[in-house]
Amino acid sequence: MHDLLTSLQGLPPLLIYLVAALIVAAETAVIFGLLVPGEATLLLVGFLAYAGTLRLGPALLVMVAAAVTGDTLAYRAGRRYGPRLRGGRFGARVGPHRWNRADAMLARLGGRGVFTARWVAFARTLVPRLAGAANMPYRRFAPWNLAGVLTWVGGSVLVGFLAGESYNTVSRLLGRATGAVLVLMAALVAVVLAGRWLGRNPDPARVLLSRAAGLPPLRWLRARYGVLFLLLATHVGPAWTLLINLVAGLLLLFVAGFAIAWVLEAVVRHSGLAVIDGVIAGWFAERRTAGAVDATLAVVSVARGSFLIVLVAVVAAVLAWRTRPWRADLLSVVGTVGAFVPLVVLAVVVDLAEPATAGPGGQDGVLLPTQNAVVTASLCTLAWLVSRGARWPVAVAAWTAAAAGVVGIGGARLYLGLSTASGTATSVLLGAAWTTVFMVAWATRDRAVGDGAEAAGRSGVRVDA
Q1: Residue 275, class by beta-carbon neighbours within 10 Å (0-12 exposed, 13-18 middle, 19+ buried)?
Q2: What is the pLDDT of residues 323-343, one digit of tens each?
Q3: Structural contact between residues 41 and 24, judged by C-beta atoms closer than 8 angstroms
Q4: DSSP string covering 1-20, please?
Q5: In this structure, what are the phi and psi dihedrals at residue 384, rounded to the nearest 5 degrees?
Q6: Could you report the per-residue pLDDT of 393-402, keeping only the tens digit for each?
Q7: Quick one: which of 389, 426, 71 has its CA closest to 273?
Q8: DSSP states of 306-370
């Protein structure tokens, strides 16, 4: 790498600008841009600006212009060849209803998706084409894309410039971070799929037991001793049956919680984020004053996970009393009067997953501070309960307050040195993902109930909720 940098420093600056611009533009302009090292190129441009071979200002302008040009060409290609793709054999197999659903989704989330895609290696190559194929107006695509380009290009070039002699280290860490983002996206997709499965199977223990009963060994036992099982179930009674079913469902939640915690911890641990823990801790330590520490400590002491769990229990009980009757299954319990139960499960999961050990400077030597995870999940649960079925100003206010609370409590714990930056990121992701499972499950079940009622209405059959 040192020999490569030395040889590049001997080339004419105009040639370096041209080649770097072509690489950055080609990453999105051509479909083979998936294989083009755009991030590494921008880091290299920043390093060459640090070494004096290039000038920082012109380098930023040229790279931004190249990235915008590549995205525009990709958008135009999607706009031009998108209808042909839809009308072809592949498009017919997809079906018009799926194309229409994709158009509606991109119209609703397209701007934010275009911005976020700039930070993910494969997404920034494909998303401009999808936006063009979905007929997203260019006046909507352009500003979001420009914002993504400015942050991504500017951030990468400046990181390479500030890294100086540490270019190799920064390039390696940035590559690890990109891989971590891809794994994190896959984990979030898995969380959504788990929520959808729970929404379709609101009584997961009973569903899994019924499917297990179809396996050959259990099928043989049921055929041979089915009468005994029936007598045992009759003796237990419906109340105990419900209790056993809920306990089994909670055990499944424990397993799911451990799986989510393990994946998120592994993602953050291998992302390289821990490298900046010391820098952030030092920055906060330099700004601590006695009065501010006392006030912050009082806020953190009040906004603890245990207090918020009790608050969730009270709010859930009040809302459950005012809403329609809930059904006797796990999802109905944790989505209404028992909304605090998943928070208790999460607290126990985090404590068992990695016990807290004192690290340097009194910080947690773990990646999963319990308080941050439980506070995040509790605030998200409160916002979900309050906004469910409410008007949009109430929903926006609830979620804005929850986001401000998560950022405020996380920042306060960083300020006091009670957790690290990587630990805060992991625990916040865990708390948000944990709440997302139940939000998606509830929305999936509501949609299924609504579709069933609509179908019954068309057929003239009355369906009781």
Answers
A1: middle
A2: 655 566 778 888 888 889 899
A3: yes
A4: -HHHHHHHHTS-HHHHHHHH
A5: -65, -45
A6: 888 889 999 9
A7: 426
A8: HHHHHHHHHHHHHHHHHSPPPPSSHHHHHHTTTTTHHHHHHHHHHHHHS---B-GGG-BSSS--H
Integer Cα distance of 227 and 235 in angstroms: 12
d(CA 202, CA 101): 26
Q: Are 414 and 284 in contact (CB under 8 A)?
A: yes
What single DSSP character describes residue 288? -
Give me the helix-helix angle, 38-51 and 138-163, nearest 10°: 50
Two tokens at 68?
């915008």
Beta bridge partners of 358: 364
Structure tokens at 167: 């270019």
CB of 430 closer than 8 Å to CB of 257? no
Alpha carbons 348 and 336: distance in angstroms, whole number: 21
Is-contact 343 447, C-beta < 8 A? no
pLDDT in tens, 165-205: 555 555 555 556 555 666 666 777 788 888 888 888 877 76
Tokens, residue 255 = 């397993």
Q: How far is CA 262 from CA 62, 184, 255, 271, 381, in A?
A: 42, 12, 11, 14, 22
Residue position matching structure tokens 């940098």: 5
Which two three-digit tokens encode residue 357? 């050990």
